[in-house]
Amino acid sequence: MAKKFPLNPPHPERICWGCDRYCPATSLGCGNGADRTMHPSEMLGEDWYLYGDWDIEPADIPQQPADPALIARQG
């Protein structure tokens, strides 16, 4: 079973998010020359899971309706 994926970890820059191993950024176990995979919150902001099809259902955070202005810009 896969580990639960954290929505907004406190220090995402310290971990590689590329697989379920969650290696420290300074000690990657993926192979020689591998680079750290960023957490979506680092690239897309803290509300990254509200937009798109991530197949994540946060139990403790209520779903907000999508902002029509944001959808119009993406479309």
From TrEMBL:
Protein name in the entry: DUF3079 domain-containing protein
Lineage: Bacteria, Pseudomonadati, Pseudomonadota, Gammaproteobacteria, Pseudomonadales
A Pfam family per the record: DUF3079
Taxonomy, superkingdom: Bacteria
Organism per entry: Stutzerimonas degradans
